Amino acid sequence: MQFDDDADLDTSEVQDVRGSRIPGGKATVGGGIAGLIALLLGLFLGVGPDQLGLSSGSDEPAATASSLAQVQQTCRTGQDANTKDDCRIVAVVNSVQTYWTQEFTRRSGTYTRSPTVLFGSHVGTACGTATSAVGPFYCPGDRKVYLDLGFFDELRTKFGSSGGPFAQAYVVAHEYGHHVQDLMGTLSRSQDGVTGANSNSVKVELQADCYAGVWAHHATTTKNPSTGKPLLTSLTDADIRDGMDAAAAVGDDRIQERFQGQVTPETWTHGSAEQRQQWFHQGYSTGDMAQCNTFR
Question: How far apart are CA 33 and CA 5, in angstroms?
């Protein structure tokens, strides 16, 4: 996975509040057993704190000037994205949103850009207050993606993913798949609170996986309007394998087997390892979001 060294990054699409604190205090979900329960319920991807019964407070963290400046100062070019994790996230967000902007326009629609918020420990959102134990998530209330970079270490060490830069890109692209669903009204129509292998919750997550694959299909040909060149210049078969491996590592069956020793499909919220790989591959192989209808 390689970005154009000379490309400029748009850091306005990433809000860096690492090192900030929430006024008053503390999030509802902590570490230990509570954190693990939240992790099992929330992972993988897309479940906001409101769906986990977290604090209903919506205070945004008061970011310090130094934390806000960190990404802005260090993530300037594609070369930075090729060497630093946080800058890579900026580049992926730029690439994903450039693609969806152009795709919505092609379909006579309007794509509203959504920022990613990088946080550490805990963060206040319009969906409630969350800790990093929840994992990456998209909040429909403020239309933002929330991400603690420490999650990528857990993806490898706790969930057995091979890791790699594209595993990170897959996570980000999945969350923006939820933003696409939000803009299209799919999220609001599908949040009925029901779990199970054939539930709307699973179908929403699998569609977001498919949308991540659609972006990956077009990533190296999506041209930035300001440069006329793609930001992402190289995506190898090994990169795609890393993404597929990450998708499998966070299948409901894999997580349940690893953490509770048995698989209970009636409680699934995100789909099996095989399903998640299948739908990511569906998007990647076709490059067509119309082929991501998991609700059929």
Answer: 43
The one-letter amino acid at 232: L
Cα 15 from chain centroid (whole Å):
15
Whether the model pTM is above 0.90: no
Phi and psi, residue 133, nearest 5° = -65, -25
Q: Give the Cα separation of 173 and 264 in Å (integer).
A: 28
Answer for the pair 206, 44: CB distance below 8 angstroms, yes or no: no
Encode pLDDT of 171-203 as tens digits. 999 999 999 999 999 998 888 889 999 999 999
171 Cβ contact list (under 8 Å, min separation 6): 45, 136, 147, 151, 152, 155, 246
- Tell me which of 88 and 121 has the higher pLDDT: 88
Can you point out the beta strands (E) in 36-121?
Answer: 116-118
CB-count burial class (<10 Å; 0-12, 13-18, 19+) for 205: buried
Q: Are strands 128-131 and 122-125 parallel, antiparallel or unpaired?
A: antiparallel
**Residues 66-83: tens digit of each pLDDT:** 444 578 889 999 999 999
CA 136 vs CA 28, 119, 150, 152: distances in Å: 17, 10, 10, 10
